[in-house]
Amino acid sequence: MTAVRPLTPEALVEVLADRIADTAPGSRLRVLVDGAPAARPEALADGLVDPLRLRGRAVQRVSARDFLRPASLRFERGRTDPDSYYEDWVDMDGLAREVLDPLEQAGSGEVLPTLWNAETDRASRAAYVPVPEGGVVVVDGTLLLGRWLPFDLTVHLHLSPAALRRRTEPESHWTLAAHERYAEQVDPLSAADIVVRADDPRHPALVVG
């Protein structure tokens, strides 16, 4: 049986920071904050940085939007193809290879914070960054659950279909079909370790149970 626990945005950050900080202390941790762009997963991921550092965990932020594939591949089926948006936009292999796999127990512990600059459509040429033991990499992104990416803890920001449509910019409504497919095929409400109902960003609610 599930229930929801209403929280202020500030209280939500504190609850999540406690959960993350208490997970595998002393070990490197890979955390995903997943949600449609309208849910602003990057804002929640950014908000976790300082609270986690106050709890003694070093933090490295990474965004999936810095691991997009080249435009020639993303737009091969057109710029507004929802299946391409779902399947082809993010370089999942690159994200795993450069960010997640190095944090395995036998990994190098060094991650690449950015791989591709979508604005210039060129490699970002970023330098590798060491993540100390006990450090946390917090990744934000969209449509990332159900991809066999080796995250240790996953948070999903859930929007109802009505809220998703309402909060998505009209010029991006073509992506709604991809989110519908995600809900049907992946069921992020079940796939994520932690689910937050985020229809109203001022009044999030943690799903319990």
Automatic annotation (TrEMBL):
InterPro entries: P-loop_NTPase. This is Uridine kinase. It comes from Kutzneria viridogrisea.
